[in-house]
Amino acid sequence: MTSPAWTLRPARPDDRVFLLRLKEAAMRCYVEQVWGWDDAEQAAFLDEGFVPERWQIIQVQGQDAGVLVVEEDAEQLYLAEIELLPVWQGRGIGTAAIGSLMERALVAGKPITLRVLHVNKRARALYERLGFQPYKEIETHTYLSWEKR
Questions:
Q1: Total structural domains in the chain?
Q2: Could you tell me which of 73, 57, 77 has the C-alpha nearest to residue 65?
Q3: Segments forming the whole domain that contains residue 43
Q4: 75 occurs within a structural domain
Q5: Confidence at 122, pLDDT banded by 50, 70, 90
Q6: 99-116 as b/e, with b when 16 or more CB fall inside 10 Å?
């Protein structure tokens, strides 16, 4: 499957409203299953972690479609977040974005790590299809890593 053309743009402070809408559209069903959904709590979590210069907005056909947050340190690339609006899910965009991150990791000679909620079986299946391997389990999440072997 060929994914629609997508690009990344730097996030801006005024993306907060889009990011709250995205979180609810993409993640509410999973968050509800684990902790329950609280609008004020989700807004507070976003405000606590939202550093626009570290976040990227995924755009498809010139429209904001998702978010990509990657944290890099000396040891790894950590895929902190990748979310797409439901209308763009299942169309190869997430696979392509992670593929680009894998290329970046190869050049840097670093693994990619991430965590996924146990209840988000669709995302976990995507990561495993791309070659990510679980290495740690906690009550709510599985941690996975990928590196060229």
A1: 1
A2: 57
A3: 6-146
A4: yes
A5: very high
A6: eebbeebeeeebbbbbeb
- Residue count of the chain, please give it: 149
- Please, which residues have CB within 8 angstroms of residue 59's CB and are 6 or more apart in sequence? 6, 7, 8, 9, 65
Q: Are strands 77-84 and 112-117 parallel, antiparallel or unpaired?
A: parallel
pLDDT band at 148; cut points 50, 70, 90: confident
Q: What is the pLDDT of residues 19-54, one digit of tens each?
A: 999 999 999 999 999 999 999 999 999 999 999 999
Question: Would you say residue 10 lies in a domain?
Answer: yes
> Cβ(98)–Cβ(86) under 8 Å?
no
In angstroms, the Cα distances linking 81 to 1, 13, 14, 149 are: 23, 17, 19, 24
**Could you tell me if residue 1 is inside a domain?**
no
Question: Which pLDDT value is given to residue 22?
Answer: 97
Residue 1: pLDDT band with limits 50, 70, 90: low
DSSP state of 53: G
CATH number of the domain bearing residue 113: 3.40.630.30
Q: Which residues of 21-41 are buried (b: 16+ CB within 10 A; e: fewer)?
A: ebbebbbeebbeeeeebeeee
pLDDT score of 136 more than 60: yes
Q: Is 133 domain-assigned?
A: yes
